[in-house]
Amino acid sequence: MVESIKDRVAIIGMGCTQFGELWDKSRVDLVVEATKEAYADAGLEQKDIQAGWVSTYYDTSGITGQALAAPLRLPYLPITRVENACASASDALRNATYAVAAGIYDRVLVVGVEKIKDQGLSGLAVRNLDMGGLMFSMTMPGMFSMLATKYFSHYNITPEDGKKMLAHVSWKSHKNGVNSPKAHFRKEVSMDQIIKAPIIAWPLGLFDCCGVSDGAAAAIIVPAKDAKKYRKDPLMIKALQMSVAPGDGTTSTKYDYLHVESTVRAGEAAYIEAGIKNPREEIGMADVHDCFSITEAVTMEDLRFSKRGNMKEDIESGFFDLEGGLAVQPDGGLKCFGHPIGATGLRMIYEMYKQSQGKAEKRQLKNPKLGLTHNLGGQPPHCTIFVGIFGT
Known about the structure:
By secondary structure, the protein is of the alpha/beta class. It has a domain at 9-119: 3-Layer(aba) Sandwich (Peroxisomal Thiolase, Chain A, domain 1), CATH 3.40.47.10. The chain has helices spanning 27-42, 66-72, 88-101, 140-154, 159-177, 191-196, 227-230, 261-274, 279-282, 293-302, 311-317, 333-337, 344-356, and strands at 9-16, 51-55, 79-82, 108-114, 127-131, 134-138, 199-201, 204-205, 215-223, 235-244, 283-287, 327-328, 370-379, 382-391. The chain has a ten-stranded mixed β-sheet, with helices on both faces. It has a two-stranded antiparallel sheet with strand order 5-6. It has a two-stranded antiparallel ribbon with strand order 7-8.
């Protein structure tokens, strides 16, 4: 019998560093900063923590549980390091949540961190992948651009109209990012600038792609029954679901490049776990994995926020804007807040946490309702997807 995690575990404290090109801070600095904010927010001290989970993607951000134990000088606690590409932080929270729900621990720390800029990672890095003995080379913009070209073709969208649709996605995120004090990019960009920007992988231009950032985020979780001992406004975990593709998408002609099957499956499982029938109406806010503007756009259909073939209309009508029916990327998303891979999932939940508590300042939603976060690790044909749902 499969049981639900719904309302069994709560988040009582969170922290998040500034995201960006943090040349003056080390990985250790970021871990300490995010954790100290989470401790203060929960009203706890380090001695109260019983176990820890840490997520990083690159080994240079710390290997083994020492990535968390050493910076914080944790006293011989059980620490687990989690890596699941861009879903690493969300998966760390998921594993920690199950341990708390099982009654093993009462107070657990989860931290996601990445120090990427010091490595010089930028540009169109080519990856050589081995898929079942077949080798192929690709760039991330190139792989995701195929979602756009196929979508335009399938739904008879002209290149000009398609570019305008994608531009609205990025324009909205930049507008929201202005009001996120910890975001990497905090400057509005006009639709014209976005459309005319240099092409990276057609039709994706410079402003259709997220940046490379440093940063860390942290959360403290407890059994739901104990949550209000610590604070009056904890964030309840309603669903945590993951779906990992079997790895055959790139080498199969069956994949249509119109959707991401892992997102569809993780989303449906999360809705069942949270008891959601109509996500378009019941979800009030979402941070989804907008590594590229087309990724966010396609995700709107995969999560049933838009009907198949209708996301262009919803995007351009402002339905996903901050003042719309379902606010997507209220903090600017990966596009503007930044994307330190090992920290991103927790940063998304940090936004759901602040919005639910009414502490999101200028970007605060009037009625946040339930919040959803979504991570995509890998490429559209074969990837790891996390979908989480959170609420009061």
